[in-house]
Amino acid sequence: MLRFTTLQLRDAVLAEDVVHEAISAAISSAQYNGRGSLKSWVFAILRNKIIDVIRERNRHPTESFIEDDENDDAFDGKGHWKKTHKPSDWGQPENNLDNEQFWVVFEICLNHLPVNTARVFMMREHLGFELKEVCRELNLSDSNAWVIMHRARSQLRKCLELNYIRGGRLS
Amino acid sequence: MMNCKQATRLVSQSQDRELSLPERIRLRFHLLMCSGCSNYNKQMSFIRKAMQKLRER
Q1: Where in the sequence is the domain holding B46, given as residue range(s)?
Q2: What does the pLDDT look like over A72-87, one tens digit per residue?
């Protein structure tokens, strides 16, 4: 929880406070009804707290989010897939969503995204911000944000293909 | 015809913005012809589903 919060808020001290608050709120509230896992319930509270903090502040980081486009090594000079990098057929991947082993690999792949890429991707796909809001908060242009999202998705895809699909774990 | 690099870029952007009509037509045509990008497209939908499922876990 702390790692995720620190990633989103870019402030370790603030992150500790927010996690502490979320856990306190969880303990003091009698809302938890035993349905669903306790972890996901505390995470739901935490997620809302993070969203509040992000929306409240208006920061303009100067760090650069755009590094070299390393996606490029998947394509040849004409922009077509290199044979070794061409996405394979995953069959019916939805069948894996109930597979614990899948989630282990998926979370490892998420944790392997570069920090700046992960921050944008998780704001969009985990916290559920519109990309416009992500751009405003992080002071990114639309096209920067598209490049980062594309990079994050492509890296996740590649990581899953190498470590899960080709690892023969496809169910 | 657009190449795979451009096609994958549009596939990703289609999850963050509405593509223009010409973009959609050119992309659809490319996906019909290219199994690699067609797989990529399905995998992007799957990753989004997995991220939604992750929230509920």
Answers
A1: 4-56
A2: 689 998 999 999 899 9
